[in-house]
Amino acid sequence: MSGGMLVQALWKMAFGPSAKKRYPAPLTTHQRWMVSLDAILAERSWGRSHLMLYPLKRINPTNCQVGLKQSWDVTSPESLQSTLHWLATEGHRVQMAPTLGRPPLAWDYDRYVTVVRLGFGAGYVDEAGAWQLLASTAAPVAQTYGSWQAFAEDFVAGRDLWMRGAGSEWAGSQDDTVQAVRRLLDPTNPTSPWLQAPWESIYQPDQVPVR
Fold first, then answer.
1. pTM
2. How far apart are the C-alpha atoms of 76 and 137, rounded to whole Å?
3. Which of 35, 48, 53, 41 has its CA nearest to residue 202?
4. What is the phi/psi pair of residue 18, to 5°?
5. N or C: which end of the chain has fewer CB within 10 A?
């Protein structure tokens, strides 16, 4: 990315159109729960949003496209669907299961939701399609874990194992992830999406929360 493009991207991240104003409709309790599966990665990334389908606080399709290309080699609707299929059916958890004694579903499904949200922000999937993709995550995750803490612990375990082969450029980022989890689980943190979308809400009838 050239210097001019970088400045433009940073400007949009700080001063671009507000995503909340672009998408003002409140999410249902189930929708809030589904997007909150991405909360760990969103919490440790500047400019990311919580409790919204759109992944950024400011509208910036270029930023979403660059993030998908750099981290996932996703550059089109087709490669988005291919990556999501891999995360949903195999991911890293199949190879990790013998070491951990279980497949860390949270590690793959947190990132699945991240990729869906970025794909929506990048324009590779429309809003209805994004919600359909996210809906497929609810049952397997809700059947595997019983709390946000259990989900987070498995995500951290999977990420720790992944980092052993990720390279030195990721050194220190595990501590950032652990700190993000602590903030999300902190019962005194009013901004935590996990407090606003309790784990048990996915087992209850869906409804639009009262503002």
1. 0.90
2. 22
3. 35
4. -70, 130
5. C
The C-alpha angle 119, 122, 127, rounded to 5 degrees, equals 60
Distance from C-alpha of 84 to C-alpha of 184, rounded to nearest angstrom: 25
CA distance 37 to 211: 22
Specify the long-range contacts of residues 120-124, CB closer than 8 Å, at least 24 apart: 120/53, 120/54, 120/55, 121/54, 121/55, 121/56, 121/60, 121/61, 121/63, 121/64, 122/61, 122/64, 122/65, 122/68, 122/80, 123/61, 123/64, 123/65, 124/68, 124/74, 124/76, 124/77, 124/80
Domain locations in the chain? 3-203
pLDDT digits (tens, 9 = 90+) for 96-128: 999 999 999 999 999 999 999 999 999 999 999
Asked if 41 and 196 count as a contact pair (C-beta separation under 8 A), the reply is no
Q: Which residue has the tokens 């669907």?
A: 81
Residue 2 has what DSSP assignment?
-
